[in-house]
Structure formats: C-alpha cells, structure tokens
Specification:
CATH class of one domain: Mainly Alpha
Shape: globular
Distance between the termini: 27 Å
Helix content: 40-55%
Largest sheet: 5 strands, parallel
CATH architecture of one domain: Orthogonal Bundle
Number of helices: 18
Length: about 425
C-alpha cells in the first residue's frame, strides 16, 4: 500500500524499525554451554569495563592523590560484588548516571520489568539471580528483538577451546566467528602453542609452517563453522610489510578465506593497554590508514571484507572506500563509537553515501543483558534518522510502500550481513 501522507510515513518507519528483528553480527556473549564465559546479572553489568573506567574517574577509593599501581590493585582485589557496589554508589547515587553505559544499565533494568525509581539494587540483583538462565536468555533475546547473535570464538582461549573439543549440542540462536588476534598479533606465542598441539610450525614462518597454519585454520573452521574470520588491529598496523602478521595474512588467512568463501572482518584502531593498570578498561583509540583496507580489497577481489574502525575520524574515509569496492561491507559503531552522538553521525553519513548497503549496528555486548539497551538505544536513533530521510524522499514526489520500507530496514538490520556471509542468497 502506497503511503501518501508524511504523518503516516513517520509512523510506519518508527514501527518498522522496532518490529524487524536484528541479526547481531558481533558480540562477546556465549551459549550457556560455555558456562562462566556467558556473563549475566546486575553485578556483571556494573563491573563491565566501560563502567570500571568511569568508576576510577569518580575516585571509588576516595584517595587524595593521583591513582597509582597500589590503588588499582586495591580495587581489583575487591570481590565482584564489592566492585559493583562501589560503581553503583559512585556513578548512580553520588552523581547522575548520564553517561551512555550508565543510562544503558537503567534502560536494561527497566526493560526487564524493574521499577528504576526504587534504586533498589539488592532487589534487582536477587530477582535476576533467581531466574533460570535459559528462560532469562530467551526473554532477553525476545525483548531486544534479536533473532541471532554471533559469538567471538578464540581458539587460543583454553576454557573455550575445551568446550569445543568436548563437543555438544549447539544453540541455533548462536553463530560463530573465528577470532585471529592470538594468531596474527602474537605470533611467537601462537607458534609455541601450535607446536604443542601437533602442528609443525617454526617462529620463522617458513613454507611448511605456513602450510601448517592453514591446516590449523581449516581444522577450526570445520570444528566451529564460523560465519567469518576476524581480527582487531592497532591503528598503526602495516598489513603489507615483512612482519609475521603480514605474512600470516597473505600466506594463510586470505587463502583460507578464498578456499572456504569466508569473509574477513577487520576491526582497526585499538591501542592496547595505554593504561595497563586498568586491565581490560585500559585500551584506547587511534586513527588508522584506510589505504590498508583499500589495498586489501583491490588486491583480493575474490575475498569479502567486513570492516569497522574505532576512530571517528576514519568513518568518512571508510564510507568513501566502500563506494569503490563491492567486496567491502562497513558495519556497526564499535566500542567508543557506540554512543548516541557517534551512532547518529555515522549512520547518517552511511545512508547519504551508501544508501542501504551497509550493516547498521552490532551490539559488541559482553554481558547478556547489554543486548537490551544497545539495541533499544540504536533503534531509537535509527528510527528518527529514517523518519527524516524518508520524509526528504517523500517531498521529492517519490511515494513509498510499507513493503519497501520493511525491505530497506531488514537490509541494514539483518539481511545485508546474512547475504554477505552466505546465510541467504
């Protein structure tokens, strides 16, 4: 049915954005069979490393001088509940919880049915802890309106590796990605471990070693059936020098991608451990050279590349590069860009330069319930942007149907990714 009035157009757009299920293509949540790797509950939300960084800025230990190693060690020696209570007091009671992560926790609890005005963290903690995990997981996915999620699967993680080696029934709502950070970014350590697992590799990466790395990658692709291979990289990375990383990429990773018709996801711009005392919260961001991606796409036309950049300053360049290479798919707003200001700017830019040929968002969730706020907040932003864009189109005299709007929204929330990785034709 053709939509003839702008008011009706706005209503249809808003309802469609919130009705269409998302396919969350990059998360750090896991199937229940991974046990402790699946993080959930109030305390996990409060000790999330985004909030840890904010908690230190609020001086949780009430010290009078700048933080040093001793103060960080004191904090991390606390139990998880004690850390959570400190974060709650410092970020929610002594200040208004206005940051995106703090507000997101409140959105999450509200969507789970809790009365946020009571500020009763103990009651919320107990209520969630008493919910059966499988029921809770199903409820979270339903409320978030997420049809499936993609895990981040690291073959060098001993706990995760043991689960895969044991086998077991898979949860069809969880897909896999094969994470290559341990292989590409820490080759000397990886070589020792590969040798211990029966692969004949040398740190010098000779011809035989490269063949064995390829065998390792094929073995893990067979074992976990990933939708794509993935690696996070520093902003100053050179993928064409004579480093072990560049040679592994050229001789091992890209050939496996070609042979198995798997995309490679490049996540570029993270500066690891600028403050190592903050542990997982100590990473930062830097601007990268988009020419690295352009050259990869040009020299490997038969390989598909998913790409996201951590620096806001790289976003325009990535959009322009994506106009030039059909084997390049930009996706989501990663990490420090997963805030309303940046989500809105980046999404508008992509729509204006790429139309609907991108993946709008991924949650990057590390705690199960984070799916709720990350998708709720992103849909709210996307709904407002698309209302404006479709009204702009309407004013040209072009008339849209409800089916056309649904097609477009499905594309950027799910179908573009599913087609790119071969889940649909």
């Amino acid at each position: 049915m053709i939509i003839s009035h702008e008011d009706r157009l706005r209503q249809v757009v808003w309802e469609t954005v919130h009705r269409i299920p998302a396919f969350d293509m990059h998360t750090h949540i896991y199937e229940p069979r991974f046990r402790d790797r699946l993080l959930w509950g109030v305390d996990e939300l409060l000790v999330y490393h985004y909030l840890q960084a904010e908690t230190f800025r609020a001086n949780p230990l009430d010290i009078k001088s700048p933080y040093g190693r001793a103060e960080y060690e004191r904090f991390f020696a606390l139990s998880k509940r004690e850390q959570a209570e400190l974060a709650w007091r410092k970020l929610f009671l002594e200040l208004s919880p206005i940051s995106e992560t703090a507000r997101g926790l409140l959105t999450t609890l509200g969507l789970l049915g809790f009365d946020i005005s009571t500020r009763d963290i103990s009651a919320w903690r107990e209520a969630l802890a008493n919910r059966p995990l499988n029921d809770h997981l199903s409820q979270v996915l339903a409320i978030a309106n997420v049809e499936a999620v993609v895990m981040t699967n690291d073959p060098f993680d001993d706990v995760e590796r043991a689960v895969w080696e044991q086998g077991g029934e898979r949860d069809p709502r969880f897909y896999t990605s094969l994470r290559l950070d341990g292989l590409l970014n820490e080759w000397k350590t990886a070589a020792r471990r590969l040798k211990g697992w029966g692969y004949s590799v040398k740190s010098g990466l000779d011809k035989k070693s490269a063949e064995e790395v390829v065998r390792f990658l094929h073995d893990w692709c067979e074992r976990i059936q990933p939708l794509y291979l993935a690696v996070s990289l520093p902003p100053d990375v050179d993928l064409f020098d004579d480093s072990a990383r560049a040679r592994l990429l050229a001789k091992c990773v890209l050939p496996v991608c070609r042979q198995r018709r798997l995309p490679l996801a490049l996540m570029i711009g993270v500066k690891r451990r600028v403050n190592p005392e903050l542990r997982l919260a100590g990473d930062a961001v830097g601007r990268a050279d988009i020419g690295q991606i352009e050259r990869l796409c040009a020299e490997n036309a038969s390989v598909r590349f998913l790409a996201t950049m951590l620096s806001r300053e790289n976003q325009h360049e990535l959009c322009v590069a994506s106009r030039k290479f059909s084997n390049l798919m930009p996706f989501g707003c990663w990490w420090f860009l997963n805030i309303p200001f940046a989500i809105e700017e980046i999404t508008r830019m992509r729509l204006e330069l790429l139309g609907f040929s991108f993946v709008a968002q991924h949650s990057d969730a590390r705690v199960l319930e984070q799916l709720l706020y990350k998708w709720a907040h992103s849909r709210w932003i996307l709904g407002h942007i698309l209302q404006q864009k479709y009204c702009d189109l309407h004013r040209t005299g072009w008339r849209l149907t409800e089916a056309e709007i649904e097609r477009d929204v499905r594309a950027i929330l799910a179908d573009n990714f599913k087609r790119f990785v071969g889940l649909t034709s």
